[in-house]
Amino acid sequence: MLKRRFPSVTLLAALLLTLASPGLGTAGLQAWRIDSGTVTVSLSPSRLDNLGMSLVNPRHTADVSLDRAVQLLLEPPIHSFTVVASPDLDFVTDNGAFDHFVEGTVAVAVSGGLAFRTEHLRTGRALDPLFLYDFSVEIDPSQERLVLGLRGQDPSLAIPLQVKNSDLHFHAKSGVLSVRMGDLFLSEAWAERLGQPSLAGRLLGAFDLRLSGTMLRGAEIIEREPDLGRSGERAFLDVSVDEVYGLTSFGHEGTYPNGES
């Protein structure tokens, strides 16, 4: 995966002044604002049970909007929540390809959520429940490998769940910025809280984030033909498999270049 490079503070300030100007003289750049969005989560009851966790009192605030074919790949129940739109989520694209959030690292506010009963795996002692109501999804795009953190309202508690094995994808025609079908894992801090540090990184389910945006201003997006390999066919990574310990029903969707199925 290519590592994104971000401008210095001085360069970023100059970029924002350019974006704010009526002419938007910087070639190829577009400024976008998030209008709405959804978070969809699929959690495996059996995997939760093996970790001393059980899901209780989900508070859904959105309908499941994933394609029917994708839903069939996920283990029910599927939970969906509404994203709270905010100017803090403004982002910039370079000829329609995601470049950076204006704020750098962002926290996507989510309405609704989940709660979990938890117990110490060694002693069976009941632990304080985990509340993920009106939670946030923390995104730092500067990471070489994108890792999202799901954080509850209590800032004193460590991030309990993380999302890995996906990336930010932007589809310029629809204006949708997404993290599609990421894998949802137990964090190291929460594994220690459950009394089993070795369970850190244990797969719990699947995570999907869709943010719908509107272009505020910017240069016209020029569609480009994909690069061709020496064989004359499209040259891009088709399938990558890493650390496979078993197969289950979770799946990913999307093809080159913009995640269209």
Secondary-structure map with pairings?
Blueprint: H1 9-20, E1 29-43, H2 45-50, E2 53-59, H3 68-71, E3 78-83, E4 91-94, E5 97-101, E6 106-111, E7 113-119, E8 126-133, E9 136-139, E10 148-151, E11 161-164, E12 168-171, E13 176-186, H4 188-193, E14 203-218
Antiparallel strand pairs: 1-3, 1-4, 1-14, 2-7, 3-6, 4-5, 6-9, 7-8, 9-10, 10-11, 11-13, 12-13, 13-14
Sum up the structure in keywords.
261 residues; mainly beta; 8-stranded antiparallel β-barrel; 3-stranded antiparallel sheet; 4 helices; disordered C terminus
What structural class results from the helix and strand content? Answer: mainly beta
Sheet bearing the most strands, described?
8 strands, antiparallel, barrel
The beta-strand count equals: 14
Mean pLDDT across every amino acid position = 81
Q: Could you characterize the architecture of this molecule?
A:
With 261 residues, the chain is mainly beta. The protein is 11% helix and 39% strand. Strand 7 (113-119) and strand 8 form a beta hairpin. The two termini are 21 Å apart. The relative contact order is 0.19.
